[in-house]
Amino acid sequence: MECHVYYEGDDDPDKCTARRLEKFDRAILHRSMRQVPYGVVLNPHAEQALSPADAEDGLGTLVALDCSWESAEEASFSMNGVHRALPFLVAANPINYGRPFQLTTVEALAGALRIFGEAEAAADLLEPFRWGETFLTLNEEPLDRYAACTDSSDIVAVQDDYLADE
């Protein structure tokens, strides 16, 4: 699955995971929203949770928005595609370690790939980050359970289990 990122450029360039993905040829960055191809758009404001059933809807394309959390408003996600929200996952990056839903761009893309059953692609995407493997280890159980789901309602049921324990 091809990973694309709409890059707003409003965060610290030294900590930007999207720029690092581009540097290591793991994702294609777009600086104009018009350039972003149709695909499954990871959108925290989406009404439906990402599930394995969405893998084919994006025609092999996964899209993320790279911006600071302060500017991640609903209007920022006005890209063409199938919009889906990631379920409960915990960040492993040094800035938001242990915080649920506070993922970097690479964590979001890798989480989506794992949900789609592409464990090797997820690990490859995270390889340039010293904490990348930690993300997969930290979220191993929920990612395995999400990947075994068939649709969004199953994902929400699994997520509810995790949120009830929080």
TrEMBL record:
Residues 40-163 form the 16S/18S rRNA aminocarboxypropyltransferase Tsr3 C-terminal domain. It comes from the Archaea. Belongs to the TDD superfamily. TSR3 family. Its EC number is 2.5.1.157. This is 16S rRNA aminocarboxypropyltransferase. GO terms for molecular function: rRNA small subunit aminocarboxypropyltransferase activity; S-adenosyl-L-methionine binding. One of its GO terms (biological process) is enzyme-directed rRNA pseudouridine synthesis. Pfam families: Fer4_RLI, Ribo_biogen_C. Residues 3-32 form the RNase L inhibitor RLI-like possible metal-binding domain. It is found in: Cytoplasm. Keywords: Cytoplasm, Ribosome biogenesis, rRNA processing, S-adenosyl-L-methionine, Transferase. It catalyses: an N(1)-methylpseudouridine in rRNA + S-adenosyl-L-methionine = N(1)-methyl-N(3)-[(3S)-3-amino-3-carboxypropyl]pseudouridine in rRNA + S-methyl-5'-thioadenosine + H(+). HAMAP family: TSR3. Aminocarboxypropyltransferase that catalyzes the aminocarboxypropyl transfer on pseudouridine corresponding to position 914 in M.jannaschii 16S rRNA. It constitutes the last step in biosynthesis of the hypermodified N1-methyl-N3-(3-amino-3-carboxypropyl) pseudouridine (m1acp3-Psi). S-adenosyl-L-methionine binds at T17, L65, L86, T105. One of its GO terms (cellular component) is cytoplasm. It is an enzyme of class 2 (transferase). The keyword Repeat does not apply. InterPro entries: RNaseL-inhib-like_metal-bd_dom, Tsr3-like, Tsr3_C.
